[in-house]
Amino acid sequence: MLGYFLGQIAFVKANIEIILIGIVVVSVLPIGIQLLRSRRTSAAATNPGASVQPQTPAPRNE
């Protein structure tokens, strides 16, 4: 019944494709975020020194 009533709204009727694409993108977004997080943590685990900046020695006063 909700689909019937939403179909009567002119904005929904004119933009149904964009609305459906938006729903799909919002649904898939958490999967993409989790994938990026897992890749970042696995890259840090395999190369632990990659995120650490090299330290230069302090100048000596002689």
UniProtKB/TrEMBL annotation:
Residues 41-62 are annotated as: Disordered. The chain crosses the membrane at residues 12-33. Residues 41-55 have a biased composition (Polar residues). Keywords: Membrane, Transmembrane, Transmembrane helix. This is Membrane protein DedA with SNARE-associated domain. It comes from Micromonospora parathelypteridis. The lineage of its organism: Bacteria, Bacillati, Actinomycetota, Actinomycetes, Micromonosporales.
